[in-house]
Amino acid sequence: MKRNPQTTQQQLFQIHVHPTTEDISIPYLRKARERKEMKILTLNFLTCARKTCKSNAAAFPLHPKDAELEQVETELNPLFLRNILPRLDWEAMKTLTNELGLPNLPAEIPSEDELATPTPTATVSEGEGGIESEPSRTAKDLHTLLMETSIQSGLLVCGNCGHEYAVKEGIANFLLPSHLV
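and the corresponding structure tokens:
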């Protein structure tokens, strides 16, 4: 029996509609939708949604209050760490870790050299020693903080206006009441 390649492709992207709930689910997205996370990394890119706070420096970062943290293991991606570190506001990250009661970050943002530990290896085909890098303790700690630690519930508070954004089940609600828009 011959397989039809179009049928296989259609099956991969098939959408299932559950007749009782009218819930649309895509099989390969089901797992991601079940696990909701607001990673600590996300806080470095959020600010208060009120227009009056947009130009005020005190509106960043949003300060966690009564935060319940969760740690979910993920695979370490050294390339991602190297690329994201220059984009972080390091002072804001240090403030957030202190407010959450997490271990203190170094005074300065780690350099690329501090993220990898060179490991001498022998290349089998040439018989010469090569250099291969392994993630350093610093890289592993940053990965744990930024990518594996998430806020499951609590509040995010604006340092300028004091508005509180609720975080429930790993999702922050940034919808403002009509009188604050």
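(Above: one complete record from the training split.) Residues 66 and 170 are 14 Å apart (CA to CA).
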